[in-house]
From TrEMBL:
Probably acts as a heme chaperone, transferring heme to an unknown acceptor. Binds one molecule of heme per monomer, possibly covalently. Binds 1 [4Fe-4S] cluster. The cluster is coordinated with 3 cysteines and an exchangeable S-adenosyl-L-methionine. Residues 6-250 form the Radical SAM core domain. SMART domains: Elp3. Belongs to the anaerobic coproporphyrinogen-III oxidase family. HemW subfamily. InterPro entries: Aldolase_TIM (IPR013785), Coproporphyrinogen-III_oxidase (IPR034505), Elp3/MiaA/NifB-like_rSAM (IPR006638), HemW-like (IPR004559), rSAM (IPR007197), rSAM_sf (IPR058240). Gene3D superfamilies: Aldolase class I (3.20.20.70). Keywords: 4Fe-4S, Chaperone, Cytoplasm, Heme, Iron, Iron-sulfur, Metal-binding, S-adenosyl-L-methionine. Its main location: cytoplasm. This is Heme chaperone HemW. It is found in: Cytoplasm. It holds the Pfam family Radical_SAM.
Amino acid sequence: MAAATKAKGRGLSVYIHVPFCAVRCGYCDFNTYTAKELGGGGSQAEYPANAMREMDLTLADDEASGFSYDRVDTVFFGGGTPTLLPADDQARMLAHLTSLIPLASDAEVTTEANPDSVTRDSLFRLADAGFTRVSFGMQSAVPRVLAILDRTHNPESVPRAVAWAREAGLQVSLDMIYGTPGESLADVETTIEAITEMQPDHVSAYSLIVEGNTKMARQLRRGELTEPDPDFMADAYELIAARTFDAGFEWYEVSNFARGEEFQCRHNLAYWRGLDWWGIGPGAHRHRDGYRSWNLKHPSRYAAALAQNQLPVDGSEQVSDEDRALERLMLEMRLREGFSAASNPLTSSDEARVVLEAHVAAGRLDARAWENGIVRLSDAGRLIADAITRDIAAL
């Protein structure tokens, strides 16, 4: 029962993957499906009951393994587009989770949403059900860029959705993507200015990564689109960082900015800090003290397993100490708070110290933090955080 003692008194984060989209975006490689692609037990109508059944089975599996949690600290409905489901369905799933493990009094409960997938009434219903936060996939304020990304909303729908969320008492996060083929620095500036004018609580700014099995990747291979060069990506990031800082945001992870610590996304911080989380839904991943598992990806196969009263697990692994150290390095390097070099075997050796001190001397790591043994990115280092990680991992 050592595991139970270890987990008792700890909070849990819960990710609920809702794999449905009205339209598949050309750049997206996530585990998502349109209504036409689904049949059998994997439909949107049957999804809430399936997800709640998985919660029951996951709790039973934890208890059989000697794990228990006192509370749920964060919940994140992601996708896909979770708000394609009726608000009452999202509320039912949250209520069922709460019946199994109580929500912390200050729990953060987020749903992702497209600006055109919500109404004033649906946002009020979510707030009444216990949701505290909504993350809108804005991506760009430039119609031409949205068209290249195959986004279905228009820029005018975003301020309206933000206003409704504010009226409902929800915190607001806005997501943007930079580096869309054909996007200019002026386009990036238009987007970040539109975002700061709406005064959200949180901004996520992600560089576009084109995955191989997507419509956009095929367009690039055919020469129909041109991928931006690394210099443009660096210029775009520096512009976003400067504009968000001027608007009162602080970066707390390389791609994430908040108006203060109270508006940081605690759910994502749970991932970045290697805490425990459930992954509910097709293709979702779960982590428990170094044990990791992932679900069957297709909603029909996922539903079929649950119909047999089985956890819909497709695979699992016990992460080795070496891999956990590497993952910690990759994730903690990106956090503004940094980490103690002595806390990770990959950064505590004499060889690692030489590499880290070279990055300090080059201005990529914070010199004052390093005096206290803390590895923390400087502003210049934010542009090459992954490269610094690779330098250390290569030792």
